[in-house]
Amino acid sequence: MMNTTMKFLLALILGGAVTGSCTPAAQRCDACRLIDENVAVATVQLSQLYRASESSDAALLIPSTFRDGEVRFVPVDDWVSGFFAGSLWYMHRLTGEPEWAERARRHTLLLDSVQYLSWHHDVGFMINTSYGNALRYGPEAGDTAVIVTAARSLASRFRPGAGVIQSWNVDRGWQSERGWLCPVIIDNMMNLELLFKAAELSGDEQLREIAVRHADRTLEEHFRADGSCYHVVDYDPLTGEVRRRCTAQGYSDESAWSRGQAWAIYGYTLCYRYTGDERYLEQALKTWRFMADHPRLAADGVPYWDMDDPAIPEACRDASSAAIIASALYELSTYAGDRSIEAAADVLVCSLSSDAYRAQAGENGGFLLMHSVGSIPHGSNIDVPLNYADYYLLEALVRKRNLVNGDPVLL
Question: What is the pLDDT of residues 143-170, one digit of tens each?
Answer without folding.
Answer: 899 999 999 999 999 999 999 999 999 9
